[in-house]
Amino acid sequence: MELSIVTSLYRSAPYLGEFYRRVSKAAEQLGRSFEIILVNDGSPDDVLEIALELRANDSRVCVVDLSRNFGHHKAMMTGLAYARGTRVFLLDADLEEEPELLLTFSETMDQTAADVVFGVQDQRKGRAFERLSGTLFYRFFNAVSAQQVVPNQLCARLMTRRYVDSLLAHRDREIFLMGLWAVTGYRQVALEVRKQHKGTSTYTLPRKVDLAVDAVTSFSNRPLVLLFYLGTLILIMSILGAVYLITRRLFFGHLLPGWASTMVTIGFMGGLNLFSVGLVGIYLSKVFSETKDRPYTVVREVYPSDSSGLVHDGVFSRESGE
Predict the structure, then answer these.
(1) Assessment of whether the complete model's pTM goes beyond 0.90
(2) In the structure, what pLDDT confidence band is assigned to residue 308 with cuts at 50, 70 and 90?
(3) Residue 166 CB contacts under 8 Å (≥ 6 apart), including other chains
């Protein structure tokens, strides 16, 4: 198998038919043998039925049905685990990134001998808040993390077999794909890509906040280090303040009144303590999650392509990430 095309499906019913036609045509133009892996990430619409109909009409289509919604990044990693091609093309099915990018990426990979060719937006799409929050996220992440990521990069990417195997070797349970893409290394080439805006994103603000927290705590311990220095600074300031007050009382007989300032200080220290405990708790929760070593997705059923080589009786089931 020369090429695997992997995508995840969540509320993708309106786009899947066109996505399949366009990406199949692009792959056929390359003249390579290929497979298309569709991962149903617990989508509430009828996208699974559409995917199975595509499989019934095209033996190159493999459908992986997850037992529930696990999230975009985990679904993508599950799809990569089933990909067998010497090159793997990863792309969202919502058509915000053109399936024809496969041709451009393939040409660039041939010319540069890179292991990864991926798309980068020239400018983030969406409302002003989305653009601003995205910019702040990348700046904050790169500031606190030892592993730098390319801002505004897209899911669309073409990867070699050895890169995909190295990517799948990571055993993270809490997945931040952009961090894993960067930490895996190899030669990676970015191409500027125009992304179409298709309306409301399935990434709500709470999900974006969760993703940002997972990203920072999974790839950096600097918040804990900064917290230590902040605590040390406050301790030193408190000691100096206490020495100052004691000196005024013993040598000058002045006792500074300040009930309000005392309460503000107590409130500040209490808030700092809660913040510190919460931050440490987040890191401990990561350790707790990783030590359980659960699979990051559970696959309910796999409907393999005829050329997949999987041994099955019509349906193949397993837990990915094992």
Answers:
(1) no
(2) low
(3) 184, 185, 186
